[in-house]
Design goal:
three-stranded antiparallel beta sheet, hpI Integrase, Chain A, mainly alpha, 6 strands, 422 residues, DNA polymerase, domain 1
């Protein structure tokens, strides 16, 4: 019986070639303790290995080989289309970045060479399960929505022969489920909304600019980017109104300002310095570095400053960001029993079709009623016989300035090819 000598075994075509030659002429690779073999020439074996490697490393059974658009190709074409929308001003840069991040997760999970049309409901069910390990319900729903949009684009653009079958599980969590979870969080003292006492505590120790921003959040339902991009021309401080379309949706919005909000904004404007960039001269709020608070990134300066303040006040909790103030306005404003007025102030819209053919809006009296209802909640006097104690009277750690230095509390009170990496 003769044995093949070492010289009879095929050699790797180059040092970094990932497969190992076998005596029978095939190639092999040990993955997670299992030895897999690949036939054909060195290049043919490598092509087959690259096709199934993502499934093997993920512990999935590789699908049968088929021709068609890969997940990576679909994701890339989808992002190219979304980038054109972004350049045309139809979606924001942040929205495009969200789509890009979702596409990278899709490709990383399913594999670059996986045929898109080959995906089955159980594949999407596994992807949803993977997402749920690191995301709460709302974030999970956003990821699922963006993923479905990508595959719908594939069919609408003629890249996929049939609509994708996602199965019954790959859908956003229901509104009922989210409401139930939030109700449970509130009952356990883990809700993200701030109480009136907590907001007063934040206002007391906030810097003048942040104090004005907080009041805009509670008074008018303004979010981080609404505040950062607020132009001077939107303010009528003499009559006490703010009128400016919401940057995110373009929806018209108008709201009466409380005396406290007007006073806070006037204090900001009295100390406002000239920004370095002439294009920022129209903005109400300017950073200490004489720049804009608006950043086309999720790393938002207002979020950072607010997080520092909340931490110093002992109010920091997961999900309680500056944006939570907008939720406070919506929750309390609903008590005025005028949903249409609340939505108008927040910059929401009933539907694109309605907006296109209807220019009417709630009367100023209705908007004023909502604003006054929220103000009455925030500045309500303690009930008779109440000690007036609340979280707002708790001891506060010395707040920090934006540079991380401590400031005495009194002074503060006054004062494009898609690339998969890794």
């Amino acid at each position: 019986m003769t044995h093949s000598s070492r010289s009879d075994i095929a050699q790797k075509p180059y040092p970094d070639y990932p497969l190992t030659p076998r005596r029978d002429g095939r190639w092999c690779k040990r993955i997670k303790g299992t030895l897999y073999t690949f036939t054909g020439s060195a290049q043919e074996a490598l092509d087959e290995y690259n096709r199934v490697r993502d499934d093997l490393y993920a512990g999935r059974k590789p699908r049968a080989k088929s021709e068609g658009l890969t997940v990576l190709e679909l994701a890339t074409k989808f992002l190219e289309a979304k980038q054109l929308q972004q350049q045309a001003g139809e979606i924001t840069v942040l929205t495009w970045k969200d789509y890009k991040a979702t596409c990278k997760r899709i490709v990383a999970y399913f594999g670059q060479s996986r045929t898109a049309a080959d995906l089955q409901p159980e594949d999407f069910e596994g992807f949803r399960s993977e997402l749920s390990k690191t995301r709460k319900l709302v974030a999970l729903g956003n990821e699922i929505r963006r993923a479905r949009v990508m595959f719908k684009y594939g069919f609408d653009a003629g890249l996929l022969a049939a609509p994708m079958r996602f199965g019954p599980m790959f859908r956003q969590p229901s509104t009922k489920t989210i409401k139930r979870l939030r109700a449970q969080q509130r009952s356990e003292g883990q809700g993200r909304d701030f109480t009136a006492a907590e907001i007063h505590k934040l206002l007391k120790f906030a810097t003048p600019q942040l104090r004005a921003m907080i009041l805009l959040g509670v008074n008018a339902g303004y979010g981080n980017h609404d505040v950062a991009r607020l132009p001077l021309k939107a303010l009528d401080l003499e009559s006490g109104w703010i009128d400016h379309a919401r940057p995110k949706t373009g929806a018209a919005r108008r709201c009466p300002l409380w005396p406290e909000t007007v006073k806070a904004i006037k204090e900001v404007l009295s100390k406002r310095r000239t920004p370095k960039d002439p294009s920022h001269t129209e903005l109400v709020f300017i950073t200490a570095a004489l720049g804009s608070f608006w950043k086309e990134t999720t790393d938002n300066p207002i979020s950072k400053e607010f997080a520092k303040l909340a931490d110093d006040c002992g109010l920091k909790r997961r999900g309680r960001s500056f944006y939570a103030l907008r939720h406070v306005f919506r929750t309390i404003g609903a008590g005025a029993k005028d949903v249409e007025a609340v939505k108008h102030i927040m910059g929401h819209s009933e539907s694109d079709i309605d907006d296109a053919y209807t220019e009417s809006r709630p009367s100023d009296d209705r908007l004023l009623a909502v604003a006054n209802h929220v103000r009455a909640w925030l500045y309500a006097k303690p009930a008779k016989g109440s000690t007036g104690t609340s979280k707002a009277t708790e001891k506060v750690r010395t707040p920090r300035t934006s540079k991380g230095k401590s400031t005495p509390p009194d002074a503060v009170a006054e004062g494009f090819q898609l690339r998969i990496v890794g």
